[in-house]
Fold:
Amino acid sequence: MEFITPIFKWLHVIAGVLWIGLLYFFNWINGHVVATMDGDTKKKVIPEIMPRTLYFFRWGAAWTWITGLVLLLIVYWMSMNDSMFTEPGVGESFSKFKHMAYLIPFLMVFVYDAFYKSALVKNVRVATIISFLGIAGVLCFLVFVAEMTEYRAYNIHVGTMFGSIMAFNVWYRIWPAQQRIIAAIKNGDAPDPADAGMAGLRSKHNTYMSVPLIWTMINEHTVGVSHYLEGYGVLLVMIVLGWHLVFQLYKKSAKVQGF
Structure:
């Protein structure tokens, strides 16, 4: 395990850099560049560059998720196991919701997808508030109901939820929509606005989730904050701070000009 874990952490970081780097390229660079192209240029350039870029994008997402799942299994479910749910000296009784804590990060993928396909998301501000309350609800379940008291444990399980939602978006929402968009542009047709809307919205969601996701990926190095503040409070603050950072970067990206 001492040999396997560092190797998978290394692969996890490499895949994450590839995936999230391309995510930022799509959201803060590519869209603004494409907007400057005429129809003929789009017809020539997009069918060449986008399939190549999306190949590394979607497989970066897949390998980030797979290696993350391996690390979750080895580091937390096998190694830490019961120590995630009790503090030293507290006792040996565990919550009956313990095993639900393992599943909820993955189940929330389908809750998220159903919510953002519903009519409830027409108001972006309301949808954002509901999303944050949903994240806080998951965190409260892990800490107070499932009694997952270990900072690194509930931190990484929230990160698993973000990463699973993001990987789902890439493979089942963004990539299928982009395939249809690229095919339409290659044939000289206008892409379906529904596909463009789906790909753009889910890609934006992934961008907002990526910054707090990175916080959870480095949680081994942030344990110190839990000694001074409640760890779950820190995590919620970092989610809000991360979302604000992404919001500011979106505004900045719109002002950067080419030569």
